[in-house]
Structures are given as structure tokens and as C-alpha cells.
Amino acid sequence: MRGLIFASFLLVAGTAHAEVAVTDAWVRETIGAGRTSAGYARIVNTGPADRLLGVGISTGTAEVHESREQNGMMRMLPVKALEIPAMGEAVLKPGGYHIMIMNTGLKRGESVELTFTFEKAGRITVPAKIAPITATAAP
Length: 139
Ligand SMILES: [Cu+2]
Known about the structure:
By secondary structure, the protein is mainly beta. It has one helix and ten strands. It binds copper (II) ion (CU).
């Protein structure tokens, strides 16, 4: 039943913005007093090149970051616009591009809404599953 609701939700989002779809969205839980987390997703583009301009979360604040090694240290840098290639995809995953999530508590097993804003495709809101803090891939 949950799967069915999720599938029909994606169908609605897909109808509004047929060329860009956001799938496999997930975030990590926060533990104790922790208020910072990270989120990931796959962005599939069946149309012309687009750009991801920002991501919002229904329960706090979020920004797009890139993890990059600099002088042997992992650093996180804000990304102003993430290029989504024509007829291609962009994957936000641990160790690379990610959604930095601040000022919120996230409980494992629940879900939260992420809103992706694209230059051409506009806004796409999808549910993101909240995974254990140790997760390295979509639950
Ligand atoms: Cu970050």
C-alpha cells in the first residue's frame, strides 16, 4: 500500500515536469540532540540540460553541497547550481554531491518531503525515507 501511494505520487510529479524526475530520495536520521543530517537522490533528465538551483526540506533548512578532497582533507563546499546533463542524470550520494540538512530532527523509519528547484523544470517535491545514521545507500 505504501508503495502504491509512493508510485502514484511520483506519477503526479512526473506529469507536471515530464522531463526531470527525482527518484530514490533518502536522508539520514539525526541522533540525540543532533540537528544536522544529509540527504541524497537520483535526478533523471529525459530532456534538455537543466540545473538544480536548490533543495528545501519540509522540517528545516537545506543546501546543496559537494564533498571534495583538498590537501588530504575532506571538505564540503556549497554548490550554487548543479548541472543536470541533457538525456542524463546526476546522482547525489555519500562522498559526493549531497543535500546538507540543518535545524531539524529526523526519525528513522519516517519520511520527510524534499523540494528540488530546477532552472527549467521548476519545483519537484518528493518524499524521502529516513534511514539509519549508518546507511550508505537508499533504504
Ligand atoms: Cu555538506
